[in-house]
Amino acid sequence: MKDIAIDLMSYELDELDDHETLDLFATLIRSGMAWTLQGSYGRTADRLIEAELITKDGEVIPEELEELVA
């Protein structure tokens, strides 16, 4: 992720693929921003963690990513 603001705008415009979305939310979780942005970001981060696509530490779970993009 080169520029978080651009990535957030791309997410809002539904321009990210699944891999890019997971990378964005992993970054948001690691930085703590997922919990300080508007509520939908925190809720989405929580859902991705609960779905075991991203760890609580903000790491994308590789096995789940492979299944998602296969």
Key phrases:
single chain; 70 residues; mainly alpha; 4 helices; 61% helix; globular
**Beta-strand percentage?**
under 5%
Radius of gyration: 11 Å
- Number of discrete helical segments: 4
Number of domains: 1
The SS-based structural class is mainly alpha
Count of individual beta strands? 0
Q: State the separation between the terminal residues, measured CA to CA.
A: 22 Å
Largest sheet: none
Please give the share of residues in helix: 55-70%
Query: Which shape, going by the Cα principal axes?
Result: globular
User: How would you state the average pLDDT, rounded?
Assistant: 90
Give, in order, the helices and strands: HHHH
List segments where confidence is low: pLDDT < 50 over at least 5 consecutive residues: none
Care to describe what's here?
With 70 residues, this protein is mainly alpha-helical. It has one domain. Helices cover 61% and strands 0% of the residues. The chain is built from four helices and no strands. The chain has helices at 4-12, 18-31, 39-50, 62-69. Helix 2 (18-31) packs across helix 3. The mean pLDDT is 90.
